Amino acid sequence: MLFKKMIRDLWKNKVQFGAIFIMMFLGVFIFSGISSEYHGLEVALNNYIKENNLADAWLYQKEFSDSTLNELKKQTDYEQRMYVSTSNKAVDNSNIDLYITDSNKISTLKVVNGKSFNNQDDGIWLDAMYAKKNGYQLNDQITLKYQNFELSKKIIGLVYSPENIYLAKEEQLTPNRQKYGFAYVNNNSFPNTLYHPNQLVLSSKKDISKIVDQLLAGNEYKLILQKDHPSVNMLTGEIAQHRSIGLVFSLAFLFIAVLITITTMHRVLQSQRMQLGILKALGFKKRKLLIHYLSHSTFICLVGSILGYWLGLIIMPALIYPMFEEMYVLPVLTSQPIVLGYLLPIGCTILCMLISFSVCFKYLKMNGATILYSNNLISNSSYSLAWSSNLPFRFQWNIRDIIRNKLRSLMTIFGVLGCTALLFSACGLYDTMTNLTDWNYTKLQNYKYKLNLNDNLNEEQIDYLLNQTKGQTLLESTAKIVIDEQNLDVSLTVLENNDYIKLAQDLSNFKSLKEGIALSKKKPADKLDLKVGDIIKWKGNLDHQEYQSKISLIIRTPNIQGITIMKEEYLQTGHQYYPTAIIGSKNQDCLTNLTNISSIQYQQDLLESFDVLLEAMILIIIILVLGAIILGGVILYNLGVLSYLERYYEFSTLKVLGFKDTQIQKILVQQNIWLSMIGILLGLPVGYLLIEYMISTIQDTMDVINFIALPSYLYAILGTLVISWVISKIISLRIKHIDMVSSLKAND
Q1: Phi/psi of residue 344, nearest 5 degrees
Q2: pLDDT of residue 378
Q3: Which residues contact 695 (CB under 8 A, 6 or more apart)?
Q4: Cα separation of 99 and 668, whole Å?
Q5: Rounded distance between C-alpha atoms, residue 420 and residue 372, angstroms
Q6: Which SS3 state, helix, strand or coil, does residue 446 take?
Q7: For residues 77 and 129, is the Cβ–Cβ distance under 8 A?
Q8: Which of 62, 222, 276, 311 could cross-link 541 (Cys pair, CB 3.0–4.6 Å)?
Q9: β partners of residue 180
Q10: Cβ distance 424 to 448 under 8 Å?
């Protein structure tokens, strides 16, 4: 009998229990989907690193002495190779990182098609993604240009590399696989006169950084550890970001599910006062009735959470992984549930059961007589509303109802707050990303192109390029900031002046640097808690001599984090200035037939890479908007119906007293609008904090400044009000169908 009653109760209160189901489903769905997606990414990365023996470090030096190699051999495994940047004659503005090596046991290539890397075959192993984008196949001929030398080889292997999971030019945020790739040839296929190894890939269980610092102290070198390599750093940052976002959104929906469970169980038990008293009078024990009423929410939560968990594993990775495949290249990428993730539906069900228990116990602890002859099981306190006596009737009515039904009113505010926050964060994220593109490439950097120079250029060659482009030189390298004997690797940028690259403290405040250095805000300033006026120790990777400099500015740099210093100050520290690039804005026709450059980087290409990033962000924005509509719609409709049912007798009384349907509808709509306005006012700052939180999860290599345009405020406010008004109007239509006679008799 009680089972049939449970089914009947669920159907009669389908709106309320449906809301519990949807919120529980969404909370578990988001957590299950995002956790399986980022865990799958984590497993794929770790397996790729292990199976292909990704190097523990990369050491760059113009030339390695025999003594250095002998000493390294005692403490590490290493492979020598030559790294150069080449251009593809057949594809305009295309660059290929070429590696010339005699073996490939560290950071081994994964062959997609063709032969494995060896030291006998005369040919080239080409990036499989680059080949796909440009229509190359096995046995095709490809010609690469390096300085004045052309290397023409047959493609004998299409490969992936664990070093190039994420492959983007410096300053680009998203890869352009059609314009940028990598290739390998063995040293027997490369002219001996040009073969000068300038890179070591190292593998060791010891502290490689300490070994190299001791061995090469005072020499020019650059060391990149595995954790700082772009392919590893970008992916681990992405994983951490998704983990944080998934947790926040899941907790939000689960929290709403809990609140709805509380209000729904209150509503069910209060509306069944007569049934509850009769059942107790007939001899049903408290324990049996408690199990009966607990089964209502427990059953719904269990079904919703299990369905959400299962569908999350299937749907969410299928939506997100195509976006990953545009950014990263992993041989195998499949979703992987987190360890003990299957316990999540059980945990959510137990939580709802405990909450329902706390509500049911208050009702069931009384005897049958008390329940039958009590109009309200949970007593209300009296409130003085004398201050509202001069207000119109519907104002007084709604004020009294809000005060008497605090939990329902609070739930409505929470629902509107969540809806507004999600809408506002969606609009704000879009504003922030579009503004970042415009700010970075029109206000902060206003050059049209950057020429990356070959090594060992003399002054005459540099002057020629400057005359051709009417630009200025730029030195880009890396440095280490030394804090308490700990080193933090950062970028190093040396500027001649601020004609093409400005220094910004925020979106509109630009400063000049006359002395000292400027530090990027996100990294290292915030990371090391450094402020203007502090003195820091740092050493450039070109000479590794330690210097002390005063921090004169803290600047915002969207995609290069580190130290910025002016050329004059740089020379005064004792450094030698070796330009690595020339930036300019002269007509791009001047760039034809230029020599002594390794590549040309166009601002337009960088803008396109930001557009790709924006497309990826749009998926998150769509999810936020859909979440806002679902959250706002479900919560407001559920609570609107609950409010209508709780006041059904009161509305019937008003109709008997002569109130028209439109007047009663205005009372219902007005209360929802009041609560919606409170929720909106609270939702805007919460939405702002949500944007800040999501931006804070972006990798250290990016510094995104929050920018929200005025229309975003209007969209969030109007969007929430429209949802609230539409739901209120739909519910208010029920006023016309109130049966006054049945309603008033039912309370006798």
Answers
A1: -60, -50
A2: 45
A3: 432, 704, 706
A4: 72
A5: 42
A6: coil
A7: no
A8: 222
A9: 95
A10: no
The upper half-sphere exposure of residue 542, i.e. CA atoms within 13 Å in the direction of its Cβ, equals 16
Q: What would the pLDDT profile of 355-403 be if each residue is shown by its tens digit?
A: 888 878 777 766 666 665 554 444 444 555 566 667 777 777 778 778 8
Q: What are phi and psi of 23, to 5 degrees?
A: -65, -40
> Stretch 116-132: mean pLDDT, rounded?
92
Q: Provide the mean pLDDT of the chain.
A: 82
Measured CA to CA, the distance from residue 651 to residue 646 in angstroms comes to 10
pLDDT at 377: 45
Q: Are 213 and 539 in contact (CB under 8 A)?
A: no
Please compute the mean of the pLDDT values over residues 542-556 and round it to a whole number.
82
Rounded to an integer, what distance in angstroms lies between the CA atom of residue 550 and that of residue 171?
26
CA angle 370, 375, 377 (to 5 degrees): 60
Cα 331 → chain centroid: 23
Does residue 53 come out as left (phi exceeding 0), alpha (psi in the -120 to 50 range) or beta? left
Q: What are the helix and strand counts (H, E) for the chain?
A: 20, 21
pLDDT of residue 596: 67
**Could you give the 3-state DSSP secondary structure of residue 538?**
strand
Residues 492 and 431: their CA atoms lie apart, in Å, by 30
**Is-cis flag, bond preceding 524, omega within 30?**
yes
Tally of residues, the chain: 748
Q: Please count the other Cβ atoms lying within 10 Å of the Cβ belonging to residue 412.
A: 28
Determine the residue type at 645. L
708-739 tens-digit pLDDT = 989 999 999 998 888 888 888 887 777 776 76
Residue (of 582, 601, 567) closest to 441 by Cα position: 601
Q: What is the pLDDT of residue 444?
A: 85
Q: Please check whether residue 556 is in contact with residue 506, taking contact to mean a CB–CB distance below 8 angstroms.
A: yes
Closest CA to 402 of 744, 670, 680: 670
Structure tokens given for 19: 């809301």
Contact 712, 425 (CB under 8 A): no
Angle, helices 66-75/208-215, rounded to nearest 10 degrees: 150
- For residue 728, the one-letter residue type is S
Element (H, E) at 46: helix 14-51
Find the helix or strand (DSSP H, E) in which 719 lies: helix 710-732
pLDDT digits (tens, 9 = 90+) for 381-394: 455 556 666 777 77
Segments in 647-703 forming alpha helices (H): 648-656, 661-696
Handedness of CA 564, 565, 570, 572 (dihedral sign): negative
Cα–Cα distance, 286 to 25 (Å, whole number): 31
Q: Which amino acid is at 330?
A: L
Q: In angstroms, what is the C-alpha Rg of the chain?
A: 33
CA angle 689-694-699, nearest 5°?
140
Query: Cα torsion at 681, 686, 690, 695 (round to 10°)?
Result: 80
The amino acid that residue 485 corresponds to is E
Which phi and psi angles does 225 have, rounded to 5°? Answer: -80, 160
